[in-house]
Amino acid sequence: MIRLEVAHEWGGLAADAEQQVVQAVVSGDVDVAWVGTRVFDTLGVNSFQALTAPLLVDGYALQQAIIDSEIPDQMVNGLGQVGVMGLAVLAGGLRRPIAVRGPLLGPPDWQGLTVQTFRSNVQADTIRALGATPTDVGPTGRDAGLSGGQIHGFENSMHIYSLNLMHSIAPYVTANVVLWPETTVLLASPGRFARLSDQHQRWLRDAAADAAAQSSRLASVDTGLVADACRGGARLAAASAAQRAALREAVGPIYQRMSQDPQTKAYIARIEQLKTAVRADGDLAIPAGCTGDSPLGAEPSAGADDPSIINGIYRLEWTVDELVAAGMQRQESRDNAGVITLTFDNGQWGWSSQGRWSCLGTYSIMDGRFLRGGQRGSLGGVWWPGRL
Known about the structure:
The protein is of the alpha+beta class. Helices cover 34% and strands 21% of the residues. The longest helix is centred in the middle third of the chain and has 22 residues, at 198-219.
């Protein structure tokens, strides 16, 4: 039997949290972990860059074709240079441009903005190529920046966007532009893995392969979330064919630089080959009434209304099945089911689960709407909407 003890949010909400996870595996503090493939080009490993090449991997069927191909096994071979071993690459949510003031359609919409993306050289270069300034602040800084006007947009999946209720501060989503997917790699400590028996090693590899085989199906939840996001005030817009072509032209220099690496060039060519053989399923259908200006307003600001009007202590209870039905993974649901306590006190909020404070932050009220501001702290590894 292999027993895994899960430690949530290693590295907390820091901008370098994913780098910290990799280092924890290298040092042996962590035996097995998962981390976004995006971060490895900041650690000197470029073998995963093709997965976040801008506008290339733009559908769940294509992601799964990549996962099922020879590409992941070849990519993980490069991890030895940083002192970890890769068990599998998993598909993730398709990440789209999301903004505060209006949809990001063609390159002119990006000009002069500050856009948050998680730490990655390719992703930061893409934001610059589109005309914006990238920032890799963590989730707390991102949310505070969106609320305060210092950050104007970010990239994320509909799953995280909807679960985190982020439409309250950034209501505009581009429905038919996928910047990249959130692919992840399962890592293991080479020394710890070598000490396992042959049978235990097979179990771990088989479990990783099974997770990879099912990952696209589990990640493909976007369509079911659009209607709820629209009812909450989100508004979707579709880029025109000309705008999409302009985006591709703008990121051309990114491909020129990436193609200087023969391995990355070969991966991109292989992915383009796979792309011709699968259905295109990345564009979101826009429901009626979900276009145009958001009723939430373009630029929320703190202090417009008295935050004390909702002062008090509120409790609710949700079950594992209710959280799964809402889109959370079952393991996360087990961790978060039970009684939740929310406290609002003159612009300060607190969230606790099972009697332990897990998150603190700020909020404001504007035109009768609740706007969540910055967040700080995470005790006990409890999930809070708005984190990733």
